[in-house]
Amino acid sequence: MGRVVVDVMPKPEILDPQGKAVAAALSRLGFDQFASVRQGKRFELEVEGEVTQEALDAARAAGEQVLSNPVIEDVVAVYADETAVTA
C-alpha cells in the first residue's frame, strides 16, 4: 500500500481565527518564538501498490475539487508519504 498526502491551507487573504487562537495559546505557554500560525488540513489517501504520478495527479484533482473549498482554501502540497508501511 502506498499513501498520498494532500495538504490544504486557507488562502493568505482569508482570516484564520483558529490559527490566531493557537498562536495566542502558544505564546501563553511560553512558545514566544512563533510570530504567527496558520491552521490547515491534511488528508492521507491510501492507494493500492506504489504511488504513481497518476495517483498524485488524481489526488491533486480530488484536493482541488472535493477536499478543499476553492473559494477560501488552496491545495499547497501533494506528495507520496515515504514513511507509509507497504504491505
Automatic annotation (TrEMBL):
Keyword list, A-Z: ATP-binding, Cytoplasm, Ligase, Nucleotide-binding, Purine biosynthesis
Its top-level enzyme class, in one word, is: ligase
Could you tell me the EC number(s) of this protein?
6.3.5.3
Question: What InterPro entries does the database record attribute to this sequence?
Answer: PurS, PurS-like_sf
**Could you mention a single GO BP entry for this protein?**
'de novo' IMP biosynthetic process
What reactions does this protein catalyze?
A: N(2)-formyl-N(1)-(5-phospho-beta-D-ribosyl)glycinamide + L-glutamine + ATP + H2O = 2-formamido-N(1)-(5-O-phospho-beta-D-ribosyl)acetamidine + L-glutamate + ADP + phosphate + H(+)
Q: Name one GO molecular function term.
A: ATP binding
Pfam families, per the entry: PurS
| Subunit-level organization | Part of the FGAM synthase complex composed of 1 PurL, 1 PurQ and 2 PurS subunits.
Q: What does this protein do?
A: Part of the phosphoribosylformylglycinamidine synthase complex involved in the purines biosynthetic pathway. Catalyzes the ATP-dependent conversion of formylglycinamide ribonucleotide (FGAR) and glutamine to yield formylglycinamidine ribonucleotide (FGAM) and glutamate. The FGAM synthase complex is composed of three subunits. PurQ produces an ammonia molecule by converting glutamine to glutamate. PurL transfers the ammonia molecule to FGAR to form FGAM in an ATP-dependent manner.
Copy the pathway line from the protein's UniProt record.
Purine metabolism; IMP biosynthesis via de novo pathway; 5-amino-1-(5-phospho-D-ribosyl)imidazole from N(2)-formyl-N(1)-(5-phospho-D-ribosyl)glycinamide: step 1/2
* Protein name, as recorded: Phosphoribosylformylglycinamidine synthase subunit PurS
The terms describing its cellular component in GO are: cytoplasm
Q: Where found, per UniProt?
A: Cytoplasm
Name the gene for this chain.
purS
Q: Which family does it belong to?
A: Belongs to the PurS family.
